[in-house]
Amino acid sequence: MTKVYKFLHLITYATLMVCTCLLTSCVTESVPDNNKRGNFEALWQTLNTRYCFFDYKKEAYGLDWDNVHSRYAAMINEQMTDKQLFEVLSNMTCELRDGHVNLSAAHNVSRYGRWFDDYPMNQSDSLERRYLGRSDEYQQTSGLKYRILPDNVGYIRCASFDYAFGSGNLHEIMSYLSTCTMLIVDVRSNGGGMLTSAEKLASLFINDEIIGGYMCHKTGSAHNAFSTPEAIRIKPFEGLRWQRKVAVLTNRRTYSAANSFVMFLKGLPNVTIVGDRTGGGAGMPFNAELPNGWGIRFSACPMYDRQMQLTEMGIDPDMKVDITDEDYQRGVDTIIETAKKVE
User: Model-level pTM?
Assistant: First the structure.
């Protein structure tokens, strides 16, 4: 027994030594120097091999990632400060025009916001309070606020998908609103959260399993190296489900998992999308780290709609509506009022 034990011990030790050497070799070869140039190259190369929308962005607006490297590499020198480096690297990531791409340092987080900054807000906390009423006039559970509006219209405000919706909570919401003639689901300015929560909320509006869309995964460093698309299947909610008209309200800040929620429901019977084009964000984000410790988040897994079309740049509504200046002044939400009239 002793000889067997010693023999196994030697094998285990030898195996660990080989693995350690191999891992050490890999790490040494793959990590750039922790200087200005090294961090620039690490960021560019990480995105070059892992970001998932290069071909799409090239077709959409002519993105040339090699050209981006040439232009921004000329701005890098070892005498620049960390804040100057951060500014250059942030500007480079903005070339991707992707709200899921963020460079994080101790002093700042970069973000690309032209997908909503250049457009009307089309949502107001003051108007929301006017429609929901005082704190004791609406119900709230699992991050969802809901009430019955005048004209017997149900209203659900979903400001985030950061919450895991409980089946019991959703059943109670459906029960409370069951007498309403129609339902409004407001996902304006919902920046996303958990895709599973978006799927769960969407399950209230279907009676049979549907394919909500498709997802791919990167399989190599090439820009077009992806797995075979996998269907995102959504099963009907097991409790009470909505059977009448539903209007989903959107604006340019409807993003990420909220964009996916709209993607799941668009085109289904009795569903009408009302408001502005969504902000997009159809890539599942991934996180990496630069040699200096700065974090980089980026889109790594593309999602497609049922027609295998990317919604990275947003989804058009069925009814395009903006909140008018006159309605803002009168305390009226033009988008909600339009949704009430959906046939």
Answer: 0.89
